[in-house]
TrEMBL record:
InterPro entries: Leucine_aapep/pepB, Macro_dom-like, Peptidase_M17_C, Peptidase_M17_leu_NH2_pept, Peptidase_M17_N. Presumably involved in the processing and regular turnover of intracellular proteins. Catalyzes the removal of unsubstituted N-terminal amino acids from various peptides. CDD domains: Peptidase_M17. Belongs to the peptidase M17 family. It catalyses: Release of an N-terminal amino acid, preferentially leucine, but not glutamic or aspartic acids; Release of an N-terminal amino acid, Xaa-|-Yaa-, in which Xaa is preferably Leu, but may be other amino acids including Pro although not Arg or Lys, and Yaa may be Pro. Amino acid amides and methyl esters are also readily hydrolyzed, but rates on arylamides are exceedingly low. One of its GO terms (biological process) is proteolysis. It comes from the Bacteria. Binds 2 manganese ions per subunit. This is Probable cytosol aminopeptidase. The keyword Zinc-finger does not apply. Keywords: Aminopeptidase, Cytoplasm, Hydrolase, Manganese, Metal-binding, Protease.
């Protein structure tokens, strides 16, 4: 199921003269000096909206303040123009306090553009006249505005059968005001934003799809079809091929469901072979997670349709890679299974033979993600990789430790730092975490090479246990990073910034950034 798409283009016409349904400008909050006679919290117009303010004879910020505008981040205030400018509606979006000596941070622009475009649902054509610097920071700022607009306008198509009179369609067309619409660098940023944000939207669509419609065989088919259309090489291993190949972890988790598991491999090979480096992306694809025999509580279980967010992100990131054509070989691995309780389910106490030959003692069937990931990561190492990035909604411990916006990162120290930097650049923050020896010691098994969780079922350092386990399936010559997105991968609250309710598409933009970084810097 595909959500309605928003188109994006550049324009260098005076914003006051644009024939659009709404023009968006930025405003900053401004704290005035006591005793100055000015309001305690005055508005400051952001650059980009000067011609709009001039049309209002200098009374625009005063009028917006009367309507309740404070300039707070993400605040949206609408004002009918009554013919003062061509657009019938001016929309002021808050950017927070004015930055000292610099343009607003890219993430502030990204969230503001997202909030404004989402608030304008129902308007066919919208223009953004937000502050864009004219220095070396200009491409990053333009990228942020473009991504925010495309992602803030996302709406999942849904399954309603009756007309919804109050439901407004997402903005169909967004124009971004820039000094020179023909500038090659600006045009390149718009093209990139469309490719990357389009991939994020695809990832969101997959996560938001009802789990009865996206069981492992169907998920594999959908991803494979999109990948082939994008020009990627596709390999799909069904249950027979998985058994023949020794993928014990994927098979164990999937054996409780009548919908058999899959492993999808997507490969992008650059023209001329690229820079010689090889990047592997691995994503957890549990299409629904009941917990298996170790069944979850009923409360909130419906959100477990999102337990394939890692695979959705990897599959979508591969689509963006195919469009952007970086000079590095990239291979995506998407292990897919449905974790169900039945007479054929794997059990606590089972010992599973994994793809790399290691024996794993199962203690909790709800720790299934690491089982399917271990096989896929071992396969990626066997195929050959210099860098391995894996992402998954792996542990509730990530949410407890870092909340719902910041991913946890474990693995090779240098690569974890690259993930952190990429997360900062894309607005998908991640924080490196340790892999302590005592956590590994607690996972010693009396009957196998390693226990799937702490042998005493101690949940202390639960997020770290996941990382420690996965480390066992990465060869020493491969730099790797595990990105736990249990919180950031799915947003159950109200829409905010460019995040809408449901799948977020995290960390598609981080993965694409990392691939481009390896292509450029090795």
């Amino acid at each position: 199921m595909t959500s309605p798409r928003t188109t994006l283009s550049l324009v260098d016409t005076d914003p006051a003269e644009l024939a659009v349904d709404a023009i968006v400008i930025g405003v900053h909050s401004q704290t005035t000096e006591p005793g100055s006679g000015a309001p305690a919290h005055a508005l400051l117009l952001a650059t980009g909206g000067e011609s709009i303010a001039a049309a209002f004879d200098g009374k625009l910020t005063e009028t917006l303040a009367l309507l309740g505008a404070t300039g707070g981040p993400g605040e949206v205030i609408k004002l009918a123009t009554l013919g003062t400018v061509t657009a019938p509606l001016v929309v002021a979006v808050g950017l927070g306090p004015e930055p000292s000596g610099a343009a607003p941070a890219p993430e502030s622009l990204r969230r503001a553009a997202g909030a404004a475009v989402r608030a304008l649902a129902g308007a066919p054509r919208v223009a953004l006249a937000l502050p864009l610097p004219d220095d070396a920071d200009a491409p990053a700022a333009l990228r942020a505005v473009a991504e925010g607009a495309l992602l803030g306008g996302y709406r999942f198509a849904g399954y309603k059968t009756k007309p919804q009179p109050a439901r407004r369609e997402p903005v169909a067309e967004v124009l971004v005001a820039v000094p020179d619409a023909a500038d090659a660098t600006a045009q390149a940023e718009i093209a990139r934003a469309q490719a990357v944000a389009g991939a994020v939207r695809t990832s969101r669509d997959w996560v938001n799809t009802a789990p009865n419609e996206l069981r492992p065989p169907a998920f594999a088919d959908v991803v494979s079809a999109a990948a082939r259309e994008a020009g990627l090489e596709v390999e799909v291993l069904d249950e027979a091929a998985l058994a023949a190949g020794g993928y014990g972890g994927i098979l164990a988790v999937g054996q409780g469901s009548e919908a058999p598991p899959r492993l999808v491999k997507l490969t992008y090979t650059p023209d001329g072979g690229g820079n010689g480096k090889r990047v592997a992306l691995v994503g957890k694809g549990i299409t629904f997670d009941t917990g298996g025999i170790s069944i979850k509580p009923a409360q909130g279980m419906w959100e477990m349709k999102s337990d394939m967010a890692g695979a959705a992100a990897v599959g979508a990131a591969m689509l963006a890679v195919a469009a952007l054509k970086p000079s590095v070989t990239v291979t995506g691995y998407l292990p897919m299974a449905e974790n169900m309780p039945s007479g054929t389910s794997y059990r606590p106490g089972d010992v599973i033979s994994m793809f790399n030959g290691k024996k794993v003692e199962v203690l909790n069937t709800d720790a299934e993600g690491r089982m399917v990931l271990a096989d896929a990561m071992a396969r990626a190492c066997a195929d050959g990789a210099d860098y391995l990035f894996e992402t998954s909604t792996l542990t509730g411990g990530q949410v407890i430790a870092l909340g719902k916006r910041i991913a946890g990162v474990m693995g090779t120290q240098e690569l974890c730092e690259r993930v952190r930097v990429a997360g900062d650049a894309t607005g998908e923050p991640a924080w490196p975490m340790p892999l302590p020896d005592d956590v590994r010691k607690g996972m010693e098994s009396e009957v196998a090479d390693i226990s799937q969780v702490n042998a005493g079922m101690d949940r202390a350092g639960h997020m770290l246990q996941g990382g420690v386990f996965l480390r066992e399936f990465v060869t020493d010559d491969v730099a790797w990073a595990h990105i736990d997105i249990a919180g950031p991968g799915y947003h159950s609250g109200e829409a905010t910034g460019y995040w809408t309710k449901g799948g977020t598409g995290v960390p598609v933009r981080t993965l694409v950034h990392l691939v481009e970084d390896v292509a450029a810097n090795g």
